[in-house]
Amino acid sequence: MNIKSEGEILELTKKIVKVLYEKDGIDIKILDMKESPLLVDYFVIATGNSETHLNALRDAVVEKFKEENHNLLYYDKDKGYEWLIVDGGSVVVHLFTESAREFYDLEGLWSEAKRINI
């Protein structure tokens, strides 16, 4: 994976959020995870309104990582999940159905993490 500066990682995160907005992602949030014990800079969290929508969001995010020449560590490729993860190492994207987002409550779990507004 290419080593990127903090500024480049933030720019990549903004581009991913833009793609999610363009694909009608719902309630998109960015959590600054640099102060957490996790080896990640940002969580991007969004909701999709159906399985098809979640898959489209995932595919768009994966494509954006590839366009930006940012290697992916992992992403959920199967169908039928209510929580899809696209792990780009320094940026991890969490895509949820509305009920799964409420159930897993990552924003509540990481309530100390600073929110980034774009």
Automatic annotation (TrEMBL):
Pfam families linked to this entry: RsfS
Lineage of producing organism: Bacteria, Thermotogati, Thermotogota, Thermotogae, Petrotogales
Source organism (scientific name): Marinitoga aeolica
Role noted for this protein: Functions as a ribosomal silencing factor. Interacts with ribosomal protein uL14 (rplN), blocking formation of intersubunit bridge B8. Prevents association of the 30S and 50S ribosomal subunits and the formation of functional ribosomes, thus repressing translation.
Keyword Cell cycle: no
Protein name per Swiss-Prot or TrEMBL: Ribosomal silencing factor RsfS
Oligomer status and interactors: Interacts with ribosomal protein uL14 (rplN).
Localization per Swiss-Prot or TrEMBL: Cytoplasm
Family per similarity comment: Belongs to the Iojap/RsfS family.
SUPFAM superfamilies: Nucleotidyltransferase
Keywords: Cytoplasm, Repressor, Translation regulation
Domain of life from the UniProt record: Bacteria
Keyword Cell membrane on entry: no
